[in-house]
Design a protein that fits this description.
Helices cover 36% and strands 20% of the residues. α1 packs parallel to α2, α5 runs parallel beside α6 and α5 packs parallel to α9.
Length: 251
């Protein structure tokens, strides 16, 4: 069993796979509409809800903010290898590759935008990565249950293997002369992003097919990696939607 924390994560699992939830623990002091809706949904789905004090919830989550709700749930059988993700896709792969993202809140937010943009997987190296922690799962708001998070031992080697499969790799780099709006983002695509401030590691950068920049028109020099991921993924998705329209010219 694993603990799911926060209303988004627990509600998402309830709606998608209620049979995998054993029990839900709710702060006995929460009498608001949000807690009431969660209790009613769990009751309709025949999932037990137990009222407990906040200290017990704190102990269950190890200090992670839980919003007064924790669920004990079975771990989902998500793909662990990129090959399992790529097999059987009905459209060209759209992947998010993260290099050096060590903040679980950033990782959770990246998973959330990946889910929203319809990315098929998020890939990250085993080293220099925070992993799918309780905090990351909470911030993901259910996306950790829908987007495969693939951890690889050697990121550069994995990128070479993706290119051998015909997947075009575009790395986001502030110094790239070509902006994301001018770049090739069609077909099978992997968008590669590094941590805010540090950016892509040298070997990761060199493993990309091209580098693109996100135009920065104000005083801020860079964007949070989850914001940058959202911009890149949705631009790629926009291109696919436009290309699918009857009579659309190639972009």
């Amino acid at each position: 069993m694993k603990n799911l924390t926060g209303f988004h994560a627990v509600t998402s699992r309830l709606r998608q796979r209620p049979q995998t939830i054993r029990e839900i623990y709710v702060d006995a002091e929460r009498k608001d509409a949000r807690a009431k809706e969660l209790r009613e949904l769990a009751q309709r789905l025949d999932v037990r809800v137990i009222a407990v004090d906040a200290k017990r919830l704190d102990g269950m989550t190890g200090g992670v903010r839980h919003q007064g709700v924790v669920a004990q749930a079975e771990p989902l059988d998500m793909p662990k290898f990129i090959e399992d993700v790529l097999e059987g896709l009905e459209e060209p792969p759209l992947l998010l590759v993260l290099d050096g993202v060590q903040d679980p809140h950033n990782l959770g937010a990246c998973l959330r935008v990946a889910d929203g943009a319809g990315a098929h997987a998020v890939i990250a190296p085993k080293d220099r990565s925070c992993g799918l922690t309780t905090a990351a799962i909470k911030v993901a708001s259910g996306a950790a249950e829908s987007v495969p998070y693939i951890v690889v031992t050697n990121l550069a080697r994995t990128m070479r293997e993706l290119k051998e499969r015909g997947i075009w790799l575009a790395g986001a780099d502030d110094s790239a002369p070509q902006s994301i709006y001018e770049s090739r983002l069609d077909g099978a695509l992997g968008l590669v992003l590094g941590a805010e401030g540090e950016g892509l590691r040298r070997l990761t950068r060199e493993s990309c097919d091209l580098l693109v920049s996100i135009p920065m028109l104000g005083a801020v020099a860079s964007l949070n990696v989850s914001v940058a991921s959202g911009i890149c993924l949705y631009e790629a998705r926009r291109r696919r939607v436009a290309a699918a329209r009857p009579g659309a010219a190639p972009k």
